[in-house]
Amino acid sequence: MDIVIGDVHPVDILVLRNDGSEATARMIAWLDLATNDFFYSLVLLPKGKGITQAHITRSFVDLVQAWGLPSCLYFDNGTEYEGCELIDGFRALQGLVEGFHAFMIGASEIDTALGIDKGTLTLRR
Predict the structure, then answer these.
(1) Distance from C-alpha of 74 to C-alpha of 111, rounded to nearest angstrom
(2) Looking at the predicted structure, is the pLDDT value of residue 117 above 80?
């Protein structure tokens, strides 16, 4: 739990809504870099809606209840974090909890840190 990376991904499994339209769930994923443990929340959204900061916050609370508070939390700079209320909340948490830090970085920087080669979609070790 020294470094945890959070990201949002579509899940490529089609689900039929009650109105007959097709949907794909979104996965809010958390990866512990030290252990490669993976925690996630799935959200099936109404038509035309996207993941909100409330969804991410709920998933983070679930993560903390299951694993505890990480020391460092990294997010990519995706549209889910626009408006900065979520990031402001994590910055406030930094001021309240000694040893907790949150960072917002580009997805490519996360890939580089993880050693992911986008050309082959493999891990470089």
Answers:
(1) 12
(2) no
